[in-house]
Amino acid sequence: MIDLTNILPEILLTVAAIALLTVDFLKPDSKRVQLYLALGGCGFALWAISSMTLGHGGEFLAADSLTYGFSVLMVIGALVTIALAACDSEVSRHWGSYMALLLLAAAGCMLLVKARDFVFAFLAIELISICSFILVGFERKDLRSTEGALKYFLFGAFSSAIALFGISLYYAATGTTAFTLPQGIADTSMGVVYMTALVMVFVSFAFKASLAPFHYWTPDAYQSAPVPIAAFLSVVPKLAAFAAMVNVFNQSILLDRAQLTTVFSVLAILTMTVGNVSALAQTDLKRLLAYSSIAQAGYMLIGLVCVSYTGMSAILFYGFAYLLMNLGAFACVLWVIARSGSASLTACAGLGKQHFAMALGFTFFLLSLAGIPPLVGFIGKFYLFSAAMETGWAWWIAAAGAVNSVISAFYYLRIIYEMFLVETDFKTAPVASQAKLSALGMVIAILAIGVLAMGLYPDPLLILSRL
Question: Can you give the pTM of this predicted structure?
Answer without folding.
Answer: 0.90
